[in-house]
């Protein structure tokens, strides 16, 4: 892991985090310290526990054991003020279809305590940068997948959060917009913002992350820079490292079985 001056306070600190659904542990003791300016590529197979961890940090899931501290405070202490410093882009952009983009974004801004007029101006300018100026007053119901994703990204940034949780933020974006968002993440991190980036697109995670945390069956299986992970596992790409650490080699055989079943009479 990269060397970090011990006097710098972690933005996020997790100790022995465990979570049980019914009788099954989905998080089995997670320990993690994340520092300002880091872009954490948070990866793992489907069902590994990534969303559960993020939802606990956002205060959306209760019933965990262990300790989660954000900005130095235990999130269980009852003060939800920390949420004002967080931005969140969920995996699926759930927006209010009957609202216009302007109505939705000013509504979200007001929830974060922003002044309506200032928020309107800021949202309009951000949407313009995403080539969405002409639909700012249109209902979200008419938006394409990519337009919804861009609206979601704008809504997560309006209040200038210090910590961003992004779940597949490039989903549905065209190639130009992908370039903007990747550069945006790098520039926000350079300003000291912390980004928790969950994605299954290994090529992007490999390039954008300053540190990669791999979750496997509710536990951290690897934690370090891409170079460190590469050295340790003696593999080439992050995809290779991922496959090795999750013990997955049979993709060709599975694809063959798919094809043979699909082709059955
Ligand atoms: N509300 C719930 N009730 C019961 N089980 C749940 C609930 N939410 C998640 N789980 C289970 O917890 C495990 C971890 O789920 P989680 O959504 O955190 O995985 P993930 O790593 O985000 O997966 P993906 O990459 O598919 O998004 C899964 O086995 C899932 O079925």
Automatic annotation (TrEMBL):
* Domain (ABC transporter) ranges: 12-242
A Gene Ontology MF term for this entry? Answer: ATP hydrolysis activity
What keywords sit in the KW lines? ATP-binding, Nucleotide-binding
- Does the record's keyword annotation contain Phosphoprotein? no
Domain of life from the UniProt record: Bacteria
Q: Which organism is it from?
A: Paenibacillus montaniterrae
Q: Which residues form a coiled coil?
A: none
* SMART domains per record: AAA
- Cite the CDD domains for this sequence: ABC_DR_subfamily_A
**Nucleotide-binding in keyword set:** yes
For this entry, the protein name equals ABC transporter ATP-binding protein
């Amino acid at each position: 892991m990269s060397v970090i001056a011990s006097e710098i306070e972690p933005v996020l600190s997790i100790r022995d985090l465990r979570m049980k659904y019914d009788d099954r542990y989905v998080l089995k003791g997670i320990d993690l310290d994340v520092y300002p300016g880091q872009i954490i590529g948070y990866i793992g197979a489907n069902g590994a526990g990534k969303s559960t961890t993020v939802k606990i940090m956002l205060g959306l899931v209760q019933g965990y054991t262990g300790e989660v501290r954000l900005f130095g405070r235990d999130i269980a202490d009852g003060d939800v003020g920390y949420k004002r410093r967080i931005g969140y882009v969920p995996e699926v952009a759930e927006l209010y279809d009957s609202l216009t983009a302007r109505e939705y974004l000013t509504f979200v801004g007001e929830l974060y305590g922003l002044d309506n007029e200032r928020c309107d101006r800021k949202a309009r300018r951000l949407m313009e940068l995403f080539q969405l100026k002409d639909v700012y007053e249109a209902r979200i119901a008419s938006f394409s997948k990519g337009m919804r994703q861009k609206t979601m990204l704008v809504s997560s940034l309006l209040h200038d959060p210090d910590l961003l949780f992004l779940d597949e933020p490039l989903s549905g974006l065209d190639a130009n917009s992908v370039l903007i968002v990747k550069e945006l993440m790098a520039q926000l991190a350079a300003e000291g913002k912390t980004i928790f980036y969950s994605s299954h697109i290994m090529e992007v995670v490999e390039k954008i992350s300053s540190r990669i945390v791999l979750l496997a069956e509710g536990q951290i299986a690897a934690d370090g820079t891409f170079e460190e992970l590469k050295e340790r596992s003696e593999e080439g790409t992050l995809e290779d490292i991922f496959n090795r650490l999750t013990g997955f080699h049979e993709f060709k055989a599975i694809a063959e079985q798919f094809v043979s079943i699909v082709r059955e009479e």
